[in-house]
Amino acid sequence: MLIVKFKYPDTEKTGLATSSERFTYGQRVVVKTDRGEEVVKVLNSYPFDEEALRKFNIDKNSLYKVIRLATEEDINRATENELFAVDALEVCKEKVEKHQLPMKLIRAYATLNKERIVFYFTAESRVDFRQLVRDLAAHFRTRIELRQIGVRDEVKMLGAVGMCGRVCCCKDFLECFDSVSLNLARLQGLPPNPAKLSGACGRLMCCLKFEEANYYVRQFLPEIGETVETPEGKGKVADINVPLEIMTVELEDGRKKHFPIRLFLTEEQWNEYIEKLKEKQDDRFKCFTRAGVIGNENSQGAEESSE
Predict the structure, then answer these.
(1) What are the tens digits of pLDDT across the range 279-294?
(2) Name one GO cellular component term (predicted).
(3) In angstroms, rounded to a whole number, what is the distance separating the alpha carbons of residues 224 and 63?
(4) pLDDT (tens digit, 9 = 90+) per residue, 113-131?
(5) Among the four given CATH numbers 3.20.20, 3.40.1700, 2.30.30, 3.80.10, the one describing domain 214-281
């Protein structure tokens, strides 16, 4: 048995499903989820590893099941559903105005057989949309779900361009969101100014988190200005480049030399640092989410079936 990691078409988040067949990146498969049958994009296939599942606290019984490789009919129906969702979003907007609800609709999504239509929205506070859900269920005659999402989820769904000039990392390749704090900026020697470190969503940029594991080694290294012993004599630490693992030392004769940080660590410290980097790399199932679950930001949802 294999585990297939896939991407949801609406939230861009990842899920896991079991399969007897190996699929490769980019293939479309039909998966039976909490919401019904969905056409999803395969990210990778892994051998079934119970130890890895335990490590990421995943119950194997919670995994979905791949039904089949998506046929041409499945893909055509999914495309038709995308067009249907655009029209459904307009209907929902009209009903939101009718009920005068303080919410901003982001996206609509319909499962393969239209067993469920999901509407995503943002709002500054919790919204009582129970009557809206009833109206939508009566209009579409199917199960309706309204889900409030956070600003980071909004950018991941719609996409944006960051201050670096590239597509935002959350849209481009990130599978889920990690907690980001100003301590990460201080750790990397950046000015702790939220205005300069915020992304398109208004929150601290996700990229501040990327090198956190690398900076774990900083606690074992001397401070700037501290005297150290090098292969070429004593000197003062002038700079430490953690990503490159290089320490610049100003020797007593005035020369500045670069040394690998490995020279200034004990065997135990170096091994501890390497283990931390390995933890960062092994994130195969880290971002597994159930269908309809939006990242790890606060969300609000409700649903109702047609009568």
Answers:
(1) 777 776 777 777 655 5
(2) cytoplasm
(3) 50
(4) 999 999 999 999 889 999 9
(5) 2.30.30
Q: What share of the chain is helix, strand, coil (3-state, %, to 5)?
A: 35, 30, 40
Cβ atoms within 10 Å of 203's Cβ, excluding its own: 17
Residues of the chain with CATH 2.30.30: 214-281
Strand partners, 198: 204
pTM, two decimals, is: 0.81
In this structure, what DSSP letter does residue 56 have? T
Number of residues that make up the chain:
307
Q: CB neighbours (10 Å) of residue 305?
A: 11
According to the model, what pLDDT value does residue 206 have?
92
User: Positive or negative CA dihedral for 289, 295, 301, 307?
Assistant: negative
- Cβ–Cβ < 8 Å for 29, 68: yes
84 touches 91 (CB < 8 A): no
Separation in Å, CA 152 to CA 123, 160, 179, 230, 245: 13, 11, 12, 46, 32
